[in-house]
Give the backbone structure.
Amino acid sequence: MFVADDAMKDHAVDLCQRLIRINTVNPPGDELEVAELLAAELRDAGLEPVVLESAPGRGNVVARLKGNGTKRPLLLTAHLDVVEVDESQWRYPPFSGEIAEGCIWGRGAIDMKNMAAMSVALMCRLARDGVELERDLIFAGVADEEAGCEFGSMWLVDNHRELVDCEFALGEGGGFNIHLAGKEFFTVQVAEKGVCWVKAEVRGEPGHGSMPRSDSAVIKLSEAIARLGKQGLKAHPTEAMKDFVAGLASLQPAAIRPLLKQALNAKLGPSILKRLPNQSIARPLMAMLHNTASPTVVRAGSKTNVIPSVATVEIDGRMLPGQTQEQFLAELQAVMGDEVELTVMRSLPPVVTEPRESALMDAILGVMAEREPDAPVVPYLLPGFTDAKAFTKLGARWYGFAPVKMPKDIRFADLFHGHNERIPVDGLRWGTEILTQIVTRFAGVS
Ligand SMILES: [Zn+2]
């Protein structure tokens, strides 16, 4: 059996540090240097990676380790861009890749230069050792996930489909542990919400600021936004959510179990979730249960003494699997009122991995049951979106499983896009072992 040894885990740690040191905050992204660094590593191991620029500086890297062709390819994928930082809030510089307090510090440490580092360390080692696989193993390091995937996975799928065509894909969206009431669970993403970004516009009577009017565009829009904040959109329990809650409930004390199940109740759910002991779990649970709409960019007027005739708000809408754009817009309109005119700015459908059961899921569950017998793997519905949106267009079945183990006092959800993003060195080494076991069990020659 092929296992990750110390040399391979050292390689993953070193790569993760080096990747963090290259600033790929998006915008502008500038992922080319990271793509070239990874390509050089892969080339050293005898592979033939290609670096593709979707636009100047926007680098993507793809490499393939040939299998014996018995089965169709498995894709390992990670985005190479990261979100912005507020450096003043960090204990260690965000692009240092410094090791301190047992962790590698820096933007991208868990989202998701760790996965790029683990995947490339694994590809290199399998290539060097000449390990025979039943499937081609493809690695795609992509640009632009944090700003909507246009210059990364979407571009690759539209322009270089033959490079990334695959049957299964392992990427972002799960593989981290969560703690609830003293119990530990690992997530595997099997669904993610759709996106519906909307511009809402209200018209009203203009006038002079010295004579207020209650029917002004600004007042009407404010009232519509306030209703949205108060009421939110509807709950729609999905299969993934039910199984997620059932998984969490299975290890909870008898007194808490029924409470968790009631969280799925569309009417009672919100008030129950507010009472959960761990509120960093309650917010994602709320998002997993409801269509959501967050007002973000508000615009109206340009002069203090002029009542403007138009006011607009951009809304970040997310719809659950099973929901259509039309249903989502109808819900939003009902809450905001008839005077608000909604225009869709961007829309991406929800993703569901169907059927959920597969040899890859079996490998994930099998390896995790052996390695972490006390921490069950629960299916996860991601409230955000990932490169799954693009790669599933190829017909690939996506599992969000970028394995990382956090200690009890560091929550994945707090670090994700948060200050002081870091990954425990041990958690990265553990992840490298787990990824290696899953990939070789699934794609190796038995
Ligand atoms: Zn990410």
Residues 405 and 427 are 5 Å apart (CA to CA). The two ends are 10 Å apart (CA to CA). The chain has a mean pLDDT of 95.
